[in-house]
Amino acid sequence: MNFPESSLANLGSLGYTEDEARFLYLVATHSGYFSMRQFLQFTGTKSGDKSMAFSQKLLAKGHATGRSFLRNGFVYHLFSRIVYRAIDRENLRNRRAHSLEHNLQYEYLETEDDKLNHFCQQLDIPKELLPKKRYSGAVHNRTTERYFVDKFPMFLFPGAFSSPVATFTFVDPGLGILDSFKTHLLAYGSLFEALSEVRLVYISPRPTQFEIARKTFLATAGRPPKKDPGDDILRYFRLQKLWDDRKYGKLTTDDIEFLHLSDKRYARHRCQRLYPSWRDGIVSDDYVRSEIQDLSPQRKVIFESELVDGQIGLFEATPKRKPTPSTAVEVKNSQEGTFGGSFGSVFAVGVDKPMEK
C-alpha cells in the first residue's frame, strides 16, 4: 500500500511518529476502528511503553475514543476531523466499521475519486450508472450527489489473462436477514450490467446466509440484460442520424439525454464502425443486431464468501476458520480466503459515535 509522504508529514506535525502516522493512515483509509493488537502487529513490537504512549497520545489529543468489549477487548475509534483532514480524507470520518486487516497486496480503490476514475475514465462507464445518493445542502434547493456512499472496500483483483477486475465487497451486519444486501444489489444493478465481469466477496461472521446470498446475487447480477443490446445501439444510430441531419425538432428531451449518455457509453465501442454503413443504407438493422451480439463478450459473474469470527476474531491471534463448501461453479469459498488468514472484523461491534471535533 502507498503511504503519501505529504500525509505522513501532516500526521507527524500532529505529534505522531512515522510508525504511528503510517498506521493511522491505514486505519483512517480502511475502517476507522482498530485494536492495540493490530498496532503491535503492524509495527512488529510487543506490548509496552510504545503502545501505551500511542494510546495515551490518541486519547489525550481527542483524536480517538476507546471502548471495552467482551473477552478483554478494547476497540479504538479514530474519528477526529483534524486527523482525516491531515491525510486528505475528511469525508471518510466516522465511517462504518470494516476490517482493517485486508490483504494489502491488492490495489484498493480507497476514495470516491479513485472509484470514479476507474469506472468513468478507465472503463468509460457513465456516472449515471454508478450507485449514488443525493444530499440536501445547507443552501436552500442545493443538493450534492455522492457516489459509493456505502464505503465497502473495493480492490482490483489481478486477472490471469486480462486487466485487473474491480472486486466489490459486502459486509453482512449480522442481523440474520438479507434486506440490506438486496438494497445494496439494487443500488449497484446498473453498474453490474455495464461490466463484463462482476466479482463480489460476501463477508459474514456466520455461514448460514452464504447460500441464499449467492442465489440472490446471481439472480441479480447474473441475469442476462433486460433487452437486446442491439435495441439501444439502433436507437442511438437513429437519434445520431437525426442530429447529423440537423433535424433537432424531432428530438425530445429524453432523446437528447439518451444521445448524450450513449455518446459517452459507446465512445470507444466497436459499434462506431457500423454507424456509417447503417446511416448510408449499406447494412440493415438485422445485420447490426447480429454484429452487436458477436461483439458482446460473455459476462462472467463470480460470488465468493469470506467467513470471519466477528468480535472474537478481532482479538485472537489466529481466528479459527470454518470452511463452507459449495457446489456452484461461480462460488469460491477458499479456506485461505481472499483476504488471508489474519482477516479480522470489527463490523459486528456496536460503537457509539462521539461528538465531531
Structurally, the number of domains stands at 3
Give start-end ranges of low-pLDDT stretches: 93-104, 311-357
SS elements, strand count: 11
Mean pLDDT: 77
- Number of helical runs? 13
Query: What is the global morphology?
Result: elongated
Radius of gyration, taken over Cα atoms and rounded to an integer in Å: 24 Å
Q: How far apart are the first and last residues' alpha carbons, in Å?
A: 28 Å
Overall structural class, as computed from helix and strand content, comes to alpha/beta
Strand order of the largest sheet: 4-7-8-9-10-11
Helix content: 25-40%
Largest sheet: 6 strands, mixed
Return the string of H and E elements: HHEHHEEHEHEEEEHEHHHHHEHE
Strand content: 15-25%
Short structural description:
This protein is of the alpha/beta class and 357 residues long.
Give a structural overview.
Strands 4-7-8-9-10-11 form a six-stranded mixed β-sheet, with helices on one face. Strands 1-3-2 form a three-stranded antiparallel β-sheet. Strands 5-6 form a two-stranded antiparallel ribbon. The two termini are 28 Å apart. The chain has 13 helices and eleven strands. β5 (132-136) and β6 (143-147) form a beta hairpin. It has 357 residues and is an alpha/beta fold. Helix content is 39%, strand content 15%. The protein is elongated.
Descriptive labels:
single chain; 357 residues; alpha/beta; Arc Repressor Mutant, subunit A; 3 domains; six-stranded mixed beta sheet; three-stranded antiparallel beta sheet; 11 strands; 15% strand; elongated; disordered C terminus
